[in-house]
Design brief:
2 helices, single chain, 2 domains, alpha+beta
């Protein structure tokens, strides 16, 4: 159950709370757990990391395509992350 506009609703009653007569919720069955791992791996491959240097974003390509790592952080630097 979710709180929406002060009402607790389920997905089945969500269109009613929105007063939407054409809203139809269609959800696919979840896939196997391995699908989640593949998705996370492919999303991590899209990561790009930049360091802010003199008002410019400088690519840190050694960290591109992987999960951000703790060792890359330096308290004296500012990083920009995008996926």
């Amino acid at each position: 159950m979710t709180l929406v506009f002060g009402h607790f609703v389920t997905l089945a009653t969500f269109p009613v709370v929105l007063r939407c007569s054409i809203c139809v919720a269609v959800f696919a069955d979840p896939g196997p757990p391995e699908e989640d791992e593949l998705y996370e791996m492919y999303m991590a491959e899209t990561n790009k990391v930049f360091r802010v240097q003199d008002d410019t974003l400088v690519p840190l390509q050694e960290y591109w395509g992987c999960t951000p790592k703790h060792e890359m952080l330096n308290s004296n630097e500012v990083y920009g992350l995008c996926a």
